[in-house]
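ERR on first pass: missing label on line 2. Operator R.T. fixed the label and resubmitted. Corrected input:
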Amino acid sequence: MGANDNHRECAVAYAEDSTSYTNIAAGGRVEDYFTLLKPRVMTLVVFTAVVGMLMAPVAIHPVIGLVSVLCIAVGAGASGALNMWYDADIDAVMSRTLNRPIPAGRITRDEAFTFGIVLAAFSVALLGLAANWVAAGLLAFTIFFYAVIYTVWLKRSTPQNIVIGGAAGAFPPVVGWAAATGTVSLDSIILFAIIFLWTPPHFWALALYKKGDYEAAGVPMMPNVAGERSTQNQILVYAVILAVVGFAPLATGLAGALYGVVTAILGAVFVFLSWRLWRAEGKEMKRRARVLFTYSLSYLFVLFLALVADAGLAAWIGGL
Amino acid sequence: MANELQQMNTVTQEEFQRRRRKRSIALALVLAALVIIFYAVTVVRLGPEVMNRPL
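pass 2 clean. output:
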């Protein structure tokens, strides 16, 4: 069935509703296709991939570096499109995702699927040709992990969904590192571990104050399955482990004193906010969960920025 | 396609054509970017060797 047939069928189904009819029959807008790429998630992916690339011991040619980052961004976007293709049914019942292009009726599922597959294939092939096939293989695995292992399999079947699925979000710095070096090393695995351990407290904080949404959609997030108290406990445990693992780049020599100070402060605040959340209940708990969620975004951004700043400082001092 | 367009009301038809034009422009830009990317990557990867081939 072609896209036009799909539009025609949907247009007939929505004929009673003039807005939906116009949306379906007129086809998707360019902005809708861009939304399918989950641009906000893509920002974080690009940022961590660039940091992975910059921290690598081998300098990458600027053009190859730029193309590699573009491929990683498009690969992440492809995973986003495939995620929206598969999750269209549950997106339609959650307030946060209700207005996405597919549930809103602006793009059909077939279109989103084709868009995702084409972008995935192009991004992997181009990364392989431009940088190397280790990086391309890692990017392909990341897309597969997010679209199939997380979205299709884990998300609806286990409350550990984002713990294991978090690996997909943790791969970009490893891909960036591999684009520059052609290998995977302990240092890039440390960057992976930091994001991997950051993901559960980040998403569980969101799930605590958006619990109703996930419940309505039937997604087994930790607060819905194990309860709020258990989720608060686990957030605190992950926060402590994250704060400790945050020091790992110092142990391998990937980072120095500046990073050490930043990770100590950031980790302490993360643990403190998780502890405050652990102590709260009811409405206050939801408020503190929102605070932790917002902080966790800044945490990762500033921590990775500190890695680059530290390396820059070391290079500057070395050059004096 | 022509029949389909005839069946649509005027508002939908105009919107359809407007969106299709924008999608086509976006696709053209992406293709142009790909051409530039492949050219640049070829030059960087092969360097001066890009010209060193039997004619």
